Amino acid sequence: MISKNKWLSAPYILWSAVFIIVPLGMILYYGLTDTTGAFTLDNITAIASAGHAKALRVSLLLSLASTLVCFLLAYPLAMILAGVQVKRHNFVILIFILPMWMNFLLRTLAWQTLLEKNGVINQVLSFLHLPALKIINTPAAIILGMVYNFLPFMILPLYNALAKIDTNVINAARDLGANHFYTFTRIILPLSIPGIISGITMVFIPALTTFVISSLLGGGKLLLIGDVIEQEFTRTSNWHLGSGLSMVLMVFILINMVLSAIFDKDGEGSML
Amino acid sequence: MERVLQNKIANDNGGFTLVKKELIQLIDISKSFDGQMVLDELHLSIHENEFVTLLGPSGCGKTTTLRILGGFTGPDKGRVVFDGQDITQIPPNKRPLNTVFQKYALFTHMTIAENIAFGLKIKKKPKSYIDDKIRYALKLVNLDGYENRMPDSLSGGQQQRIAIARAIVNEPKVLLLDEPLGALDLKLRQEMQYELIRMKNELGITFVYVTHDQEEALTMSDTIVVMNQGYIQQIGSPESIYNEPENAFVADFIGDSNIIPAIMIEDKLVSILGTRFACVDTGFGNNRPVDVVIRPEDVILVEPSEGIIQGVVSHLIFKGVHYEMEVQACGFEWLVHSTTLFPVGKEVGIRVDPFNIQIMNKPESEDEEAVIIDI
Q: What pLDDT sits at residue B364?
């Protein structure tokens, strides 16, 4: 049956060729050549320069931090959702997915308006005679933006993994003498690892590569690797350097994806 | 069947005559979910070393009773007493009982050995003790050498046996089993029934077993508790449940039966469908409406002239061991099991031996009557 209907996959093969394989090839070409078209590794080794290395370090740090915050926020929520009776949990999940239906840029702009020096939050605070919040244009604002935008991507895989655990497996652990804490560390946490890995991947990769959040909420003070690459393409028009740095970033993404492929055999994240 | 019989005899010699100690008492347990009553003032005593089966259709409250025993749900009202101690408020991890769950509930991220060692590690037993226990338990369930396998690589029957091994290494005084054989095929189920009886005798502990399968209940139990709609319908040995059902529900649920409305004329004489039959029951009063239960294998087909009543065979099915026939007689369709064939359309006589007529009180209302009995 599968071989007979092989031709059905033609549109997808065409799509991936034109929009995935070819662009990747172009990145590879630009990344490994200089303006004269000669082969060079300079674009890749450029990551070692002080400015670029710092941008990569800051990016890794901020995306790791926001992934951690997402995880700490999402895990208890996913546990509650997985425990809630069927009637209500779809509604709660909807509330968390709802923002995802709005444009990413709009949501981030909204946070900018909220957090600004004379923004909505500070107006309310000053009305209440409370000290103003100086969070805009700091790393904290960037993390806040990342967490807000990517939290649903952490909640859903975790929820999927936790909802799959048979209540009787948890009952069995309790029955065999495990208290709540032991049951959590030895049964619930290990059984949800596929969801955890999935969630980390789904948050970490977009957080690592984003440039919108940092330029809108970071005020351009803090350059992330995504900003650097964006500028190389749009402002300095140095596609070669931009491609080279993209390839470096891709290595981190690939490492993450390999890890997720090893642990997430059932495809908990595939729901998204 | 032979082995079951031997076990029963062994039990008889082992001290059925002694007064058994009451190990568990469920006292006036009530429980409702979303306003629907699941258990209504249930009262049940379970004795030491007994194989007790809670039997009933789905929704009868049998699983809820087991979950209350295990501590996974609390009763709305009532108390659970274990060995003289009130354990109603004690969480499952502190109860001296272990449970074998429906669909096994093994820890899929652990090896078989780790699964079995789970409870013992919590109790901080020495490693040599744990290793011995694992070996002993795997031997008991006939799965020696499976220590390092993962649960997913085992068949359903094997997984179920690991679940039993995981529970018994903790040496519980009572093992709770929630339809443990429900997911297995017929042949394996029958094999596991014998295994369970053997284990129960080897371990000498109390088994509380939940099932909706009446054959399973009859095969394994010392005592059967028949439940329906949150009430206990009858408690007794498999023989008494089968031969002397106390109401129409029990008679209908346990095996095939003819349940016929009748009038008790006087002691030892009942009028069934207008014909007088001799019976052995007394104490129902005179001219009282009752129900009689006659098992299909107790209906004897003879030549018309020799029968108490006469009828015509209307259906015939070959069932292997016997023929199943339906006989139209006196406006009632009699279900008959017989090794002798009577062809469809043949006129036959029906005879029933007095001791095979079981008289039951009629339920007072249309609803299934509540019968609360203590052992």
A: 58
pLDDT exceeds cutoff 60 at B259: yes
Q: Which residues of B touch A172 (CB under 8 A)?
A: 99, 101, 105-107, 163, 166
Contact between B196 and B207 (Cβ < 8 Å): yes
- A170-199 residues touching B, CB cutoff 8 A: 171-179, 182, 186-187, 190-191
Query: pLDDT tens, A71-113?
Result: 999 999 999 888 866 667 778 778 888 888 888 889 999 999 8
Contacts of residue B16, Cβ cutoff 8 Å, sequence gap at least 6: none
Question: Do the strands B231-236 and B223-228 form a parallel or antiparallel pair, or are they unpaired?
Answer: antiparallel
Residues B330 and B182 in one domain: no
Which of A4-18, A249-263, B14-28, B99-113 shows the lowest per-residue confidence on average (mean pLDDT)? Answer: B14-28
Question: Residue B365 falls within a domain, yes or no?
Answer: no
* Nearest CA-CA distance, residue B38 and chain A, Å: 19
Of B194, B211, B243, the residue that ends a domain is B243
Nearest CA in chain A to B175: A175
Q: Are residues B80 and B228 in the same domain?
A: yes
Q: Is B215 left (phi over 0), alpha (psi -120 to 50) or beta?
A: alpha
Residue B11 has pLDDT above 60, yes or no: no
Helix/strand/coil for B262: strand
Domain residues of chain A, as ranges?
Answer: 50-271
B33–A contact, CB cutoff 8 A: no
Domain covering A50-271 in this structure, CATH number = 1.10.3720.10
Confidence (pLDDT) at A85: 62
For residue A163, the tally of other CB atoms under 10 A from its CB is: 16
Q: Which domain holds residue B322?
A: 300-351
Please report residues of B whose CB lies closer than 8 A to that of A188: none
pLDDT band at A237 (very low <50, low <70, confident <90, very high): confident
Q: Quick check: A175 and B93 CB within 8 A?
A: yes
Which tens digits make up the pLDDT trace of B331-352?
899 999 999 999 999 999 999 9
Contacts of A179 in chain B (CB under 8 A): 93
Tokens of B298: 């107790």
